[in-house]
Write a structure and sequence with these properties.
single chain; alpha/beta; Rossmann fold; three-stranded antiparallel β-sheet; three-stranded parallel β-sheet; 8 strands; 26% helix; globular
């Protein structure tokens, strides 16, 4: 697993944010934007977003196998056997693996419960618990889903922007500033 994530980090060093990432960051000039992402890359941060909550962990961080609260920024892209935390235990990727709890889900639900506008970008809305965050948004708060396939959202009126993220975020930006 260490080698798998080392290769992802090595690739991630050259990855650049797309227009959708940049638009989210630009919206911070006019809105209190909180990004809740299932992605483990750092593209939102590279684009300039300042309030990013990574539900499934962060590729460029490692955590203790003894105490998951001990999280460290990686210096470079490699994490190797023998790299240990201050407690002496092996470090592992700071990634939520299958069947592990999503530790940031409560914070994400709190953010969703305070939203004035809630935007879902580029997801099928089938991966839980993240897909359930839309249910934490207060009644009457506008919910936008930017996705070419318009995934169904139960029990909620949704405004769909059936475009890929880069195009759909341009549409949303225009809507936000024309309203």
């Amino acid at each position: 697993m260490l080698d798998f994530y080392n290769q992802r980090r090595k690739q991630g060093l050259s990855a650049q944010p797309n227009a959708a990432h940049r638009i989210l960051a630009e919206l911070e000039a006019d809105f209190d934007v909180h990004v809740i992402t299932q992605n483990v890359d750092n593209l939102h941060e590279k684009a300039g977003s300042t309030k990013v909550l990574h539900l499934h962990g962060e590729l460029f961080k490692a955590r203790s196998t003894k105490d998951p609260a001990l999280v460290y920024d990686l210096d470079g892209w490699e994490l190797n056997l023998g790299d240990t935390c201050e407690l002496g235990s092996q470090l592992r990727p700071h990634i939520v693996w299958f069947y592990e709890a999503v530790p940031a889900i409560e914070e994400a639900a709190q953010i969703a419960s305070l939203a004035d506008i809630f935007v879902v970008v580029g997801t099928s809305l089938v991966v839980y618990p993240a897909a359930g965050l839309v249910n934490d948004v207060p009644a009457g708060v506008p919910v936008f889903v930017v996705d070419p396939n318009a995934p169904a959202v139960a029990r909620r009126q949704v405004r769909y922007i059936q475009e890929k993220a880069t195009v759909g975020m341009e549409v949303l930006k225009k809507y936000l500033f024309d309203v």
